[in-house]
Write a structure and sequence with these properties.
The protein has 698 residues and is an alpha+beta fold. Helix 5 (105-117) links the parallel strand 4 (97-101) and strand 5 (124-127). The radius of gyration is 28 Å and the shape is globular.
């Protein structure tokens, strides 16, 4: 046992603080990272991925068989072994020995126990290192080079987790030339699409305002219009995007393939393919996905293709660890049906990006390798994809316009508290005498400055880059604020109630406000509903056995991590991507009155929700509703329950909070139609957190 002086000190993590609206460094104990990473991991999702597991097992068995047929011993290198599942498959298929490499120590420890539990310890050696640090030789981690290479190093973009450099190193130093590889190859596909909805995730559209005397339009700065954006992929559950939200302009094309059985290069490269649009339209977005062939002949295939690119008879496997990619072209281009265009896909070690060229532009040889997009306007650094969509939602904007018309007067002095909001412009156009906007960062300051300038408002709206508690009368030109406005939206918010920072900021600025202050929104309410998920429950559910192998140890590991302090909280998910049905009616459970300052005491509530439909109670969904005025509200969660089965539609611009019940961790617990869920919630104003507890009632 180590002496106290030898114990590792706690380390720092960065977390959102809802009371300050800032990301703050906190000291955590030595167990924190282990529990956090395991609890939030997708290991359970992968173990539930039947299609993936079966295809890997088939591919591994075939590879071992081919090596044996050549009269060789089957020596396997498994990079990124995780639970050790693929290594156990290899040994079960007849491999003579397997080196299982896992860099994450808690996971490597679990793999050792799982391998031992299943009786494979003598033929599987778990190596707790990054694969690039593994040595080969009599005194090395591996006695000899392997002749079968097994990996699962892929993300939604295929190469985002460093698969290419890992393969490159393995072929140079860890495996024999001409080795078998499972998977044998990966192929990336692309499809050209027009989608106003998705393009609204990338550009700021004109915003229309009906003022008292005339119509006004908020225009986007030219720098923003022409900005190529950022290269980061937007990975989503493409199967959940409604068919009428996009128009397919091209057939599916093969962009590039990687043969994992040969030397792989991680050097930057580009691939150009010819496209003939099957329909005229505005090229805006690239859909992309990949598949992997587990054998050289391509008969064992695992695909990420969306439903329209798969045979109709195929049962599509749900998975959350691999989804589909959405890439945004630097600029939209009008295309004619049958017109030849060239799609260039560029990649570096970890990412892919695209550019589209007309035939007449193809001769520009200097542009063959397209540089990775870099945001020049800063808006893509300030606003994420859903935030762009939210700002472009004219119906949502109209609600704010209606509410502002109710509260603004010709002598109103407004202070806006939100990150990168268009509300200051709305307030000015709707007749406020003076408008100030509080921006928490240099980036939001810069973006708003550009928007104001593009609309000739740089002298009309004053930007204050200060924390609210530091506001002085001179910042506000010695005027008292009569109206505080906010969406509210803050870039540091993760869970719905993190935007309650608006309340804290309004409280901190109290000395600069008139006594009978008008606040918009005037209040917020927390709402809740019990649901059954179609698939999302899998990310938290135990697997027990996977393809005949006992993985209880992994289940216990996840369960213990979910009981750790951090993991008892709800977690954010964009529920428009994850179908669910309501088992209870939605219920308002808490109210926060922004007209008053933040209270010193806790706000607590308890009650129960009756289950109205038969189903598995997987969890509670929580979301905020902002009451702009007494009769105008903005709902960040449930849009509607669309039919008698309880199918739900969710606000697509926001993440909702999901609290998974023990019925997910303990699948044998099935809800009775007449049962209810008891709840207890407590909001701590000192931390801005909401503690919650739920219990299934008989």
């Amino acid at each position: 046992m180590r002496a106290a002086a030898e114990r590792p000190e706690g380390f720092l993590t960065i977390r959102a603080n809802p009371t300050t609206g800032a990301m703050e460094w906190l000291e955590e104990d030595e167990d924190y990272d282990y529990h956090q990473e395991i609890a939030r991991s997708r290991y359970a999702d992968m173990l539930h991925d039947k299609d993936r597991n079966v295809k890997y097992y088939q591919g591994i068995s075939a590879a071992v068989r081919r090596v044996k047929e050549r009269g060789e011993r089957a020596i396997v290198l498994d990079i990124g072994t995780g639970t050790g599942l693929l290594s156990m498959m290899a040994v079960s298929a007849g491999a003579d020995f397997c080196y299982a490499v896992e860099v994450f120590k808690p996971m490597a420890n679990a793999a050792v126990k799982i391998v031992e539990k299943n009786g494979f310890s003598e033929k599987i050696k778990v190596i707790n290192k990054h694969s690039t640090e593994v040595t080969v030789g009599p005194d090395g981690d591996m006695q000899c080079r392997a002749n079968i290479l097994i990996t699962e190093l892929f993300d939604t973009e295929l190469i985002g987790e460093g698969a290419l450099p890992s393969y490159e190193h393995a072929h140079k130093y860890l495996v024999q030339e001409g080795c078998e590889a499972v998977p044998h190859r990966a192929t990336v596909y692309a499809q050209l699409v027009e989608s106003k909805r998705m393009w609204s995730w990338n550009k700021l559209f004109p915003v229309h305002i009906q003022a008292e005397d005339d119509k006004k339009i908020i225009v986007s700065p030219s720098e923003m219009e022409n900005c190529p954006g950022v290269s980061s992929v937007y990975d989503i559950q493409l199967n959940q995007v409604p068919w009428n939200d996009f128009t397919i302009l091209s057939d599916v094309v093969t962009v590039f393939s990687v043969d994992f059985s040969k030397q792989v290069s991680s050097a930057s490269a580009y691939h150009r393919v010819v496209l003939k649009p099957v329909k005229s339209g505005m090229a805006q977005v690239i859909f992309s996905w990949w598949d992997i062939d587990m054998d050289p002949s391509g008969t064992i295939k695992c695909t990420m293709a969306p439903y329209w690119a798969q045979p109709t008879s195929l049962d599509i496997q749900w998975r959350d660890h691999w989804m589909q990619c959405v890439y945004f072209l630097p600029n939209e281009k009008p295309l004619l049906q049958g017109e030849i265009v060239y799609l260039t896909a560029c990649r570096d070690e970890y990412s892919v990006w695209y550019k589209l060229q007309k035939a007449r532009d193809k001769e520009d040889k200097t542009d063959a390798h397209v540089a990775s997009p870099v945001c020049r306007c800063q808006a893509h650094l300030l606003w994420n994809r859903p935030r762009f969509g939210e700002l472009n939602d004219q119906n949502r904007t109209n609600e704010y316009i209606k509410a502002l018309k109710k509260v603004l007067k010709t002598d109103s002095v407004c202070l806006c508290i939100s990150d990168g909001s268009l509300l200051p412009v709305l307030a000015h156009y709707l007749g406020a005498q003076q408008v100030f906007t509080l921006e928490n960062s240099a980036v939001s300051h810069s973006v708003m400055e550009k928007i104001f300038k593009a609309n000739h408002l740089e002298d009309k709206i004053k930007i204050i880059e200060k924390r609210p508690e530091l506001l002085t009368p001179s910042d506000l030109e010695n005027k008292k604020v009569s109206v505080v406005i906010g969406e509210p939206f803050f870039t540091t918010s993760l869970l719905p109630w993190h935007n309650l920072y608006f309340w804290y900021a309004r409280t901190a600025a109290a000395n600069q406000l008139v006594r009978n202050i008008t606040v918009l929104p005037q209040s917020a309410s927390l709402h809740m509903m019990v649901v059954e998920f179609k698939d999302l429950w899998r990310i938290r559910s135990p697997c027990r056995t996977c393809e005949g192998f006992d993985v209880h140890i992994m289940d216990d590991m996840i369960g213990n991590s979910l009981n750790f302090r951090e993991s008892k909280e709800a977690e954010p998910h964009p529920l428009w991507e994850y179908p669910c049905k309501s088992l209870s009616d939605p219920q308002q459970v808490m109210t926060f009155d922004f007209r008053q300052t933040v209270p010193q005491h806790r706000l607590s509530t308890e009650g129960s929700m009756k289950l109205l439909r038969t189903g598995k109670s997987h969890g509670a969904i929580l979301w905020m509703v902002y009451h702009l005025t007494a009769d105008i509200s903005i709902n960040t969660g449930l849009v509607q329950i669309s039919n008698e089965k309880g199918n739900c539609q969710w606000n697509p611009h926001c993440k909702q909070a999901v609290y998974f019940f023990s019925s997910v961790i303990e699948p044998e617990a099935v809800a009775d139609p007449s049962s209810a869920i008891a709840y207890s919630l407590s909001f701590d104003p000192k931390t801005g957190k909401i503690a919650m507890d739920f219990k299934l009632l008989p």
